[in-house]
Known about the structure:
By secondary structure, the chain is α+β, with helices and mostly antiparallel strands.
Amino acid sequence: MRKKIFKGMLLISLITLLVSAVVITVVQYSIFSKDMEKELKAEAEFIGAGVEAMGQEYLESLELTSDRRVTWINSDGSVIFDTAADTEAMEDHADREEFIEALEKGEGHAERKSETLSRRTVYYAKLLDDGTVIRVSNIRGTPQMAMLNTVVPVVAVLVGVLILSIVLSSAISDRITRPINLIDLNSPSLDRGYEELEPLVGKINRQNKMIESQIEDMSRQRQEFMTITENMVEGFLVIDNKMELLTYNRAALSLLGASEPGKNVSVLTLNRKEEFISAVEEALDGCHTIKNMENSGICCQIIANPVYNSDKLSGAVIVIMDVTEKERLDSMRREFTSNVSHELRTPLTSIFGMSELIMSGTVPEKDVLDFAKSIHDETGRMIQLVNDILRLSQLDENKNNYQTEQVDLNALGRVVAERLKLTAGDRGIDISVTGEPVEVNGVYTILEELVYNLCDNAIKYNIDGGKVVIDTGVKDGQPYVSVEDTGIGIPKEHLSRVFERFYRVDKSHSKKIGGTGLGLSIVKHAAAFHGAKVSVQSTVGKGTKMTVTF
């Protein structure tokens, strides 16, 4: 802005100076011409008086400058005398306009170009009393010549004025622009400015407020976005169409096993697994992609979506989810389905075979009862299996609205011991209850089933003549119930899996003793239903102790 003002003022100064020089020269030339005409008139009158008094002798005695010339013309136009030329060689002047005008009006004026184009001659003619005409002429330069004669002084003045113009223009430009430059754009005011700038200052103030509001909104939205993404369990990545990482959250780094990346890095530096690379490439090819990838024991699902801006691919959004638990549950579901199918297929096959033999009439009369008993036992086993599966489903989904109450674990243990006393007695196993009364808030039927299954397992996997002890009490402020046996024990490698559905440590032994293989799974789910934990201590050949802590 300052440069434009400076250049504009300097240009105006130069134009004004040039125009002034031309006008002054023209005006000066005009004044000079009028003065010359007056001078010629006075000189013609003076010479005319001398000629009337002395005749040609007076003209011959005149001493004139080189630019002056006097001519005495007869009334017919013939030249009587001329101070600068031979009269005999001169042509007739009857047609000269200043001569004709003098005869008609008493005086005449004329101006004609001389032999050189750059000079002009001014004529003044005066009619004398005797009818002759005295003509005085003077040679003068053209306006252009006059201007050329003033070039040196004009140039000198021009240079001086130019220097002065530069200094003044610079100072004035600074003075004009200084208040504008001093305006604080963050909080503009007119304390040191021009009133004409008030609309601009007002607009800047409104613009600043709008920008501040937008910045606050953007900061708040960015903070909200960062808070949301940082608290996401899922990994979140945003990349551009050149695979450059734009934003991410810590969950993504954790799931990909990557460290904090630098700036302007490729997303592929986070993980080099084929599934991840493939998902990124397919998303940037415009395809919605879902890939599964295992990374350091974690099963991840990668969902990559392309992002478009005005139908142009600008990047991709990648979401990474930890589906380890889902995969584990799917695996358990498949295993559970397989186990249920196996557990049901065996008794159904037996029932089908025995019933077919009975229907064919090939079974002896004395064996029909044995066949019927076998069918009854297998059917009961299936019913028990179905009931256990339904119970697990109820505990998993917590669909039933159970009524809770204060349950004495010690009294509950005595009830269970009494129910299993006959079963234990068949193998000479002693079942007893120790400890002190302790109450927990829970569902009586579920807690009874929990203790019953622990004791039932303790009897099944015990040795003949062994012991089962139900103990209750409070340890570290937490109520507990434990069931300890003197049975075969559980190897260490199997301890982490005994609560899985249908899992059996010794399948051959389990077939002999029967059961559905869901007892300890029901114990685990019943404990979880009450917010309790189950722990196992076991030594092979010495026995097992299972404790439920509330």
